[in-house]
């Protein structure tokens, strides 16, 4: 990726987890970060330590499209450009579909799908005018691999990954990177962080283990967010960067197993699949 020596980043969910680690890594590289969070108090210490590199921004990515567009436009107006948009804001949700309320369902799609889509849409005119830019989508291994109780969470990630994959062909002047972390030691599993739908006894055997996993693994995840941030910066600058970047051995293993299952099904059922073409089609 050919990029300016000094880049301007907009990172959502920058107060903790991957967002904070990416902000730290970009600042260490000499770049400027507009660090967005719903509550900027959590960014005060970082901004005070780097007053010329970190600019806190109060931003709710589930807000109106006009507000998100205005935020992106304001970053460009104040800094002269936007080089990297990191769609990172997110949360964990556990619940079978039948357990998940309509409000919970809509809220998670607003956070994981609509927000990143609208922010990316707002950035595209600026990237087009510059002739370049990058969008990093902090997805999840759940963007490819499902687990009982994570169905709605995975659905939001599957949806936004499909949109970003399409954008690669629509916007060849923009670099897109879908990051798919496994279990990393962020705050997603800390007590009170996850939305837990009201459990139904009918799903205790299937969703129960997932609830227990979330409740019992805070601080025990194998992934290091700082190493993840370093990997993301490295890939962003690579000439042969992939579209998808799984992070963590668990993510790599899970995705590889899924792709193997898909390939096996495709091969086994290919005669049935291809038998549906019209006879007059060559």
Automatic annotation (TrEMBL):
One Pfam family here: adh_short
Oxidoreductase is among the record's keywords: yes
Keyword entries, A-Z: Oxidoreductase
InterPro entries: NAD(P)-bd_dom_sf, SDR_fam, SDR_oxidoreductase
Oxidoreductase is among the record's keywords: yes
PANTHER family reported in the protein's UniProt record: SHORT CHAIN DEHYDROGENASE, SHORT-CHAIN DEHYDROGENASE_REDUCTASE FAMILY PROTEIN
Family as reported in the entry's similarity comment: Belongs to the short-chain dehydrogenases/reductases (SDR) family.
Protein known as: Oxidoreductase
